[in-house]
Amino acid sequence: MSAGLLFLLVFTPLAFGTVQPWSIAIMEIVAFGLFFLHVATAGFSIPVSRAARAVLFLFLLLVGLVLLQTLPLPSGILGTLSPAALEMWQTFGSAVPGASLTVSLYPDATRQELLRLLAYAAVFIVVARGFRTRARVMFLVKIILAMAGFLTVVAIAQKLTWNGRILWVFPVEEYLRRDTRIWGPYLNHNHFAFYLEMALPLALGLLMYVAPDLRATKGLPWSRRLARFMASESLLQSTGIFLLVLLISACLLATLSRGAMVASAVAALFFSWNTWRRRSLRKKGMQIALAATAIGLLILLPSWDR
Length: 306
Known about the structure:
Layout: H1 2-14, H2 21-42, H3 50-70, H4 75-81, H5 83-92, H6 107-130, H7 134-160, E1 165-166, E2 170-171, H8 189-210, H9 222-230, H10 235-254, H11 258-276, H12 279-282, H13 285-300
Antiparallel strand pairs: 1-2
């Protein structure tokens, strides 16, 4: 399963964001394959907790609602469930009297989106049930952050040396060659920005996990505290992750995706609240404050005009 998830984490962003039919099909085949492999090896059971059961019930309710929209229904029933849909079919769909119609005006697209949603759910179940140890979770986090850092560097380099081709190889339509919304393998800057927005909290979490504890030297002179901090075994690793956080944050702002910026701000607030409410992480509040200050000074102020 680790190999399959590794493939998805690497393939889906590189395949132009997985928005084309061929890449979506590959993603779905691998996702469902991982799910059935997990069921065959570990089995599948109904969640025990009430919260998990409630989420599962709501999800199944959503699936049932979508399926209902794709079922052919007599005009009388459709008129009761969705008079607007019946009116649209009669006005623009050349509906034959007495024919069965669907609530969805594009049932094939509705089924495709439902299949994609089920693929996401399949991957979620595999990760939630099969990756419970710290080592396996760290494996996924590091792969995601490695891809985010790689794509960010590639996107910036491509911007600086744009030759009208995605990743310098794949040509695009003439009207897209001067489009500044292309970032790395993503044709849509919003898609790339939201990819970074999802990776950023993981980078912050890993930074809090590996950052040296500044309070561990409380009571010592500043010279001794600084010396111990500089001698920390995790200093080099935490510095690298911090630079990755700065790089991702700067690139996210440079995309000018307002939705991703708002989502990132909300994620940062939730991250801070979730960190503060855990007693084991409160002692790293200074690291959070320092990281926020550095990001504000090094990224927000120079790019404020843009």
